[in-house]
Task: structure prediction
Amino acid sequence: MSKLEELYRLQKLDKEIDSLKQELEGMEEAEELKKLKAEIADLKKQITEKEQQEEEKNKQLKAKEFENDRLTRQLTEYEEQLYSGESSAKELEQLQTKISRVKEEQSQLEEQILNLMLELEDLAEAREELAKELELKEKELLNIRDDYAEVQLKKESKLEKLENNRESLSQVLGDDLLERYQTLLRNKAGLAVVQLKDDYCMGCRVSLPTRLVQQVESGNELIKCESCGRILYWEEN
Result:
């Protein structure tokens, strides 16, 4: 195999290596994964919000229950005074008024407590539904990642083989030729070696003089296109 053929093969390897690297990078940013991650993040946010709401409602409930206990003790105290037989008629009337007021307050308070308990039940149910949905989404993400990991391992294995082949080929070509190739690759949009086809340079699509075509077809030396400066390669049909 001539140096030119090896150089052309090296360029094919480089293209395949770059393509594989891009595929591997793109796997982490795949739309499927991004969408699932966003859904999971949103579900976690909603669950946190529900937990915060539950915490606040529980604080309110405890405060209401504490107040209700206070009213119960107060009511017991008033009733004990009412039935002690030691109060005057006026005091009895005042006690009955106080008892009525406490009972009314307690009735309102118990309704508020009941409403808070119902709200807490609704919040807990909503949070549990979100948690179930989150679990399903996380399992789905895990399964997709497993599939991606399997594909990724195959691609990484292939990439390693290609890079080993490239290293071997680079040693055969030598540093000087490799440096010329790398410079062209950078300056010519990743295309350093191009085919000569029907007397045309396939890099810039310019027709080449017969003399240059014959030199390329002889394969004895590296010939550059007079128009674009890329190395010309001719492959006999």
